[in-house]
Amino acid sequence: MSLKVRAILVVVIGVVMGLSLSIGGSLLGGEGGNRGLTSEQERSRQQAELFAEVFEHVKREYVEPIDDAKLLESAIRGMVADLDAHSQFLDAAEYRDIRISTTGSYFGVGIEVARVGDTLRIISPIAGSPAARSGIRSGDELLAVDGLAIEAGPISEVMQNLRGSVGSSVMLSVLRDDAVIDHKMRRELIHVASVHKELLSPSYGYLRVNQFVDDTARELSLAIDELQEARGETLKGVVLDLRNNPGGVLDAAVEVTDLFLDSGIIVTADGRTPDSRFTRSAHRGDILDGATLVILVNSGSASAAEIVAGALQDHNRATVVGTATFGKGVVQTVMPLSKGRAIKLTTSRYYTPSGGSIHEVGITPDVPVEEAPGFPDLSLSAVLNREADAQLNEALQLLQTRTVMHSNAQ
Fold first, then answer.
1. Domain 195-409 has CATH 3.40.910.10
2. Which of 26, 97, 124, 328 is catalytic?
3. 225 is catalytic
């Protein structure tokens, strides 16, 4: 074993076992160094030695040279990623991007995408973005990014390739009318509105939340005010569309839920540390004054979106329509590290007001309605083409029926 690998082993043993470097050094000296160790410490020592063996083989025999720092960072990434599907080590650039994304901004080209069957479709380019200026259109199929073909997998991986530093170039290849078109553009700082609004009729509003960022509750409150101002009086009912909303900032989800409740628990969380155990409750003041509320969800509604749907369902404040949600009932905390790095670590499990966990289960709709085949239902064009959207049609009918029932009861 080389001196460098022996030194790495000393550090690994020190970290894994919580022993001093001097004890770690004695562990390398042979069997005598094993005396006085507990069974758990002995297992840790053996795993640390295994790490050093693997490290040395990779360092010496991998097909291409690779430096120690890269190998150790890969080991750290693997350690965190292997915990669950949501924990992640973030280098300085990734940590910067995640901080920016929680503000509703990011460095990229400005497109919304969604999987439709086996394809990745452009839902819409953001107005004024590099994608919009280059001529990318809603409905285009995204084939490749910088020549790398899009494969089946999480959309987050594709989005990561689309993002990058301001001013850097990227090539998007799209399929339109059986023709492949390449669009070369430069990345910019993209500002994304997390809330979209529309009047479904003079009496009913439609609100779609794409993701939960720091300003989502403020945007939603403003959108409701604008809809009511356009109507000239209070709305009779609202559809809150959380379909294909992957989640986001937990506090933003709590603030959005609080807009529609006068009191009661919104969410509770339980973890191993005091900071990971908490309860969030509503404050007095329902922005809709009790008007009928219907929430649309599907299998793409996750995390923060499920907190909102679950809380409003448990308090009988909203009727949930659609299909079962994704089922992500855990909370990640971003913990800064040295040199601008961080880890995103699962620290809590959260529970709806009734005490139920939705992890790997999801929210069950009050009114199950399947999506139309091949209908992605992710853009405001869906609002203008309601015949294609069975779930939105059902929501509107519920609004009308329950508004009449509420009026008769009064």
1. no
2. 328
3. no
